[in-house]
Amino acid sequence: MKKLIKKIAATCLAVVAALGLVGCKEEKVISAYDIAVKNGFEGTEKEWLASLEGSDGKDAEKIDVQDLYEAAKADGFAGSMSDFIKEYFSLDITENNDTEIIANNISSVVSVCCAFIETSTSSSILGGTKTTLNASGSMGSGVVIDLDKKNGNALIVTNYHVLYNDDSDTKDGISDCIYLYPYGARNYFTTGADAKGNLTDVNKDGFKNEKDQGDFGGDGIRARFVGGAMDYDVAILEVSGSDYLKESAVTEAKLGNSNEVTVGEKVFAIGNANGEGISATSGIISVESETIQMGALNNPTKAVSYRVIRTDAAINHGNSGGGLFNAMGELIGITNAKNVEDETDNMGYALPITLVKYLCENIQDNDGVVERAMLGINLLTEDISVALDENGKLSICETIVITQSGQLGTASYGKLKMRDIFRWISINDGEQIEITRQYYISDILLTVRMGDKVTLGMIRDGSEITVELLYDEESYFTTYQ
Q: Is 30 helix (H, G, I), strand (E, B) or coil?
């Protein structure tokens, strides 16, 4: 027994290799040393470790984990082989996976189902016109960003396009019949339409109307539209007093910092893929920040630009509004698009969560719309450098130059000049945020409110200067809705 125990640490790596395990932690050697002392070894831990190697370092070659286990049992150990490994080597022999992280993330994502009423008018063969009521629906996803479970209240962020139908009878095109379904909830949602899209008369009362829409008997949570911005593809939903939410496993997403993501990071996309319920896919960050163009919701011929994170994690119809999470379980993006061109694979996109966070706060502070402070200048990225930092991450640094000075009627008029270079920006004498990417400027301006002071650190003609801008005029803001 003493001989076997004496050689536990020397055998440890061989045992680990045979089992496909990771390795021995420091506390495992200490545990083995304690046993060696108990079995008669006299000396320090260092002396004991040195003694394990023996004369040629091969003393333990023929000892396997079964020998060690049998020796331990002979000395009074009563547990299983798994218990023995865990106690004496502190090894985790379970599969190294991400189920716990994914479980927490899934609990913060919901399916979003919407119904729309569309009135169409056509000419009758007998003359006159005929009015028809049609119903349609959309399915997407949302992420809980604020939760008061005790009172059944929550705020959910999603994509604007999930809630919008340009042909809807509602004034703003936003559905007024929105239901949410957490993971595991029963989804009995119906748009009230038959196979041809016409509203059915479920109530048998002679009327074909929105009374036939909704969730009758399922676990759907009714939500209302708080606000959003079509040009940013972001919208907020609110749930109030939901009994189902109070008793559910729903959690609030932990927000990460999308400005710190890097190419190659492991990510998980979670959402209502193809409208079949919440599911998860995995991949990596392919591009940490880029711009894509899509047709505007209310005018497909008009191009709208979105700044996004690109990922190779599978993103499908229904994932819109869902979450992109990093390996630490932090929400780093809201999935909103995928490339569907022929011969193109694994190109999905998510709105960066730092941008989305600024937008959500802006929407709540401005009665449901986005009010973005404007500088009234034109910018150019004049130089780009790439470096590998001490953490092994690639970082990009851009030199941002003004190519048109402040325009009349803007906060920067007469204060910013051509060829000025951005160094940092601060709101109300707060943190000075270094401007290393051009998008930082437009993102940070979303946090400016009426009456705020914006301070800019600039380089002008080779010298550092400070410029202060006071946003005390409504004309200094642009509204997005």
A: helix
Counting runs of H as helices and runs of E as strands, what totals does the chain give? 11, 23
DSSP structural state of residue 111:
E
Q: How far apart are CA 463 and CA 468, in angstroms?
A: 16
The three-state secondary structure class of 58 is: coil
Greatest CA separation for the chain: 109
Q: Compute how many other C-beta atoms are within 10 angstroms of the C-beta atom of residue 4.
A: 19
Q: Read off the pLDDT of residues 107-155 as tens digits, 9 standing for 90 and up.
A: 999 999 999 988 877 776 666 676 777 888 999 999 999 999 999 999 9
- Give pairs for 412-417: CB < 8 Å, separation 24+: 412/375, 412/376, 412/377, 412/467, 412/469, 413/376, 415/467, 415/468, 415/469, 416/375, 416/377, 416/456, 416/458, 416/467, 417/460
* pLDDT tens digit sequence for 206-246: 566 666 789 989 999 999 999 999 999 999 999 999 999 99
Report pTM: 0.78
Whether the Cβ atoms of residue 375 and residue 411 lie closer than 8 Å to each other? yes
Strands 189-190 and 214-215, by their bridges, are antiparallel
Task: Measure the CA angle with vertex 162, ends 161 and 166; round to 5°.
Answer: 55
Q: What is the DSSP string of 147-213?
A: EEGGGTEEEEEE-HHHHB-TT-SSTTSB-SEEEEEETT----EE-SB-TTSBBP-TT-SS--SGGG-
Sign of the dihedral defined by the CA atoms of residues 448, 454, 457, 459, in that order: positive
What one-character-per-residue DSSP string does 350-399 give? EEEHHHHHHHHHHHHHTTTSEEEE----EEEEEEEEEEE-TTS-EEEEEE
Q: How far is CA 363 from the centre of its chain?
A: 19
Q: If you compute the radius of gyration of the chain from its CA atoms, what whole number of angstroms results?
A: 30
Is pLDDT of 26 > 50? no
| Contact predicate 441/377, CB 8 Å | no
Token pair of 421 as six digits = 């270079």
Which residue from 232, 269, 281 is spatially nearest to 439, judged by alpha carbons?
232
* Residue 56 CB burial class (10 angstroms; 0-12, 13-18, ≥19): exposed
Q: 400-435 as b/e, with b when 16 or more CB fall inside 10 Å?
A: bbbeebbeeebbbeebbbeebbbbbbbbeeeeebeb
At 450 the three-state DSSP class reads coil
CB 436 within 8 A of CB 397: yes
To which H or E segment does residue 464 belong?
Answer: strand 463-470
